[in-house]
Amino acid sequence: MLHSKIVNTLQADKGTLTSLVTRMQAMLLNIVLASFVFLSCIRDGSAGITSSFVRSAFPAVDMPVDHEVFAVPKGYNAPQQVHITQGDYDGKAVIISWVTPDEPGPRHVQYGTSKNNYKTSKESTVANYTFYNYKSGYIHHCLVEGLEYSTKYYYRIGSGDCAREFWFETPPKIGPDTPYKFGIIGDLGQTFNSLSTLEHYIESGGQAVLYVGDLSYSDQHDNKDNGLRWDTWGRFAEMSAAYQPWMWNVGNHEVEFLPEVGEVIPFKNYLYRYTTPYLASHSSSPLWYAVRRASAHIIVLSSYSPFVKYTPQYIWLKQELARVDRKKTPWLFVIMHKPLYNSNTAHYMEGEAMRSVFESWFVQYKVDVIFAGHVHAYERSYRYSNIDYNITSGRRYPVPDKSAPIYITIGDGGNLEGLASRYLDPQPEYSAFREASYGHATLEIKNRTHAIYHWYRNDDGVKVPADSLVLHNQYWGYIGRKQNQLIEEVSNIE
Ligand SMILES: [Fe+2]
């Protein structure tokens, strides 16, 4: 009796032990699975990164006017501030611009495909202007058309001993798999940090610059004679801009609306000096336009011009987006100054008005990347959108969206206003990577499906890649997904 009681007790304890072990095993399995899911989330990049990198910055002051990068070319009336931009829709033309300080002209550009053998010449326009007490030099713009694709051209401007020679390369013919390397620079200014950014960009081998606005920051100088620091900036940027096209865009520092000194024409300094091929894309203003280059369609918008429904910029953008042919130019980029997604405390929400007007189009047309500046720091988003909200829906939070663009804020060129180093905490879900350092980026298109993107931090004199990404094309990725879905559906029927 006693024996059987002991056996029953032992069997009961054994059962309890077995169930305990089973429960512990299940618990352990749950912990392992939970850890796996957690680690997978981190690996998949759903958590954004706020870089802890802290740099010791050069002082955020403009280089002195007698710095060698601002040197005036020797000789009477020698051309200076030379820069080029694309001159047509598809890249068979350039606009060559320069300033002569003493008198207008010579107005012609001589050019050819070998050095010192200039068989052709074209005439420029010339104009000058005043801004408060400042009187500009003579600003020349020369449209050189009918060029061959993928060709190196040499050009000469000025005359006699004061003539100066430069060169540029035309892009390849528009085509879906044409490789091309763009640089992206913003808010450059003219400090020692700006010089570091520009020198690093030149080393990177980029073929054309997508510029996201705020050029010289001359309006930050007290004397109101804003043209002086426009001149120094023009001489500084020449080291790159005379040799490859910069696609210009305006920022707030180009507005220069100064009624207190009688200067009430917005963008006056900028518009005299920097021109764009806006007529080629049927735009009514040089402040917004589009160009196609290699395998990319680039749309440039003005954050400081009217853009709501029925305005010229709105109507133009609607038509331009409809003109984009992803079979010819698979890559679609938009450039603007104010970012639409930004989690820095500087300029927070300033892009909200444009986001509410244009974001649904950017999603509908599957824009690959939207580049902006304005915030003096770097930030990259995941693909998020916030287009479901309306005044009654209440759906007001950004959500992951495979059709949405990636937003890149790159106003980190290095101007005299310094870095914007305070970010919102916690980091919003849409923000993938952010860091308050100076730098520039390159975007290297490989073919219709893939491009390699790098953001380079200046790192006090050394170029350091700090954020990198393989971009999958939004259109061809979408088509690929649709095709795969179709194949799957057909094989299920079979
Ligand atoms: Fe700005």
Automatic annotation (TrEMBL):
PROSITE patterns with a match to the protein in the record: FN3
CDD domains associated with the record: MPP_PAPs
Cofactor: Fe cation; Zn(2+)
Enzyme Commission number(s) of this protein: 3.1.3.2
SUPFAM superfamilies referenced in this protein's UniProt entry, alphabetically: Metallo-dependent phosphatases, Purple acid phosphatase, N-terminal domain
Domain Fibronectin type-III: 78-173
Catalytic activities: a phosphate monoester + H2O = an alcohol + phosphate
Keyword annotations from UniProtKB, A to Z: Glycoprotein, Hydrolase, Iron, Metal-binding, Signal, Zinc
InterPro entries: Calcineurin-like_PHP, FN3_dom, Metallo-depent_PP-like, MPP_PAP, PAPs-like, PAPs_C, PAPs_N, Purple_acid_Pase-like_N
MF terms (GO), sorted A to Z: acid phosphatase activity; transition metal ion binding
Keyword Metal-binding: yes
Family, similarity comment: Belongs to the metallophosphoesterase superfamily. Purple acid phosphatase family.
Name of this protein: Purple acid phosphatase
Organism whose genome encodes this protein: Psophocarpus tetragonolobus (Winged bean)
